[in-house]
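Progress narrative, work stream C.
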Amino acid sequence: MAKPKAPRVPDVAVAFRELPGTSVGFWVVSACPFCGAQHFHAAGAGKSDPFEKLGEVEARCGQGRYVIGLPPKPKRKKERRAENKRARKAQGGALDDIILDDWDE
């Protein structure tokens, strides 16, 4: 007999926003995976650490739970790095022939 699978809790990327003129912060979900609306989750006020509020929370629409977290950092493109390295290597000899001062003008 197969075990029933636990329901999957979706991951949602959030952005931090502060209330203007105060030290109150909110985590903003731009599009809820359940209803598609924008939701705000309290991130604390004053000297409290807003990163402590990240994790699994109830959606404000009441249709389920999701995990709020920071968006992933973009990956560096290794191909672009290798291409730039080849271009620098090809220009290495050509730079010796160029005079870099403007005193001749």
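Work stream C, second folded protein:
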Amino acid sequence: MQVELTRFRVKKGKEELTDQWMEFLNKHMNDALLTLDGEKMFVETIMRDSMGNYEYLYWYSIQADDGDSNSETEKCIDTKHLEYFDKCIDRTYRPKNLKTEVVMIPQRIKKQIEAAAEEV
């Protein structure tokens, strides 16, 4: 099981477009959720923060070890999602993968996650 938290910096002047992006994902949540099964992604959360003069998006995820981040499922939503990513995320800033120190998942939940990974 992979548990990750990655920080991406939003391009200056793209904060309103980032608002639209997050609104798009929330409005199309059912379609977005369909992509998770193909990726063996159990949790994907996007959080937002400001530090200094920049905004940052943080991706938190729990995924099976053999999960595929390039799922063929629901390409339409993924295509739009990646378009927003390319327009909003500052590629000059190297994404920061925060180091996982402790993962606390109750055994009953972990077993369900592992069973779900085998189903997909």
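The beta strands are 2-9, 41-51, 54-63, 96-97. No further action is required on this item.
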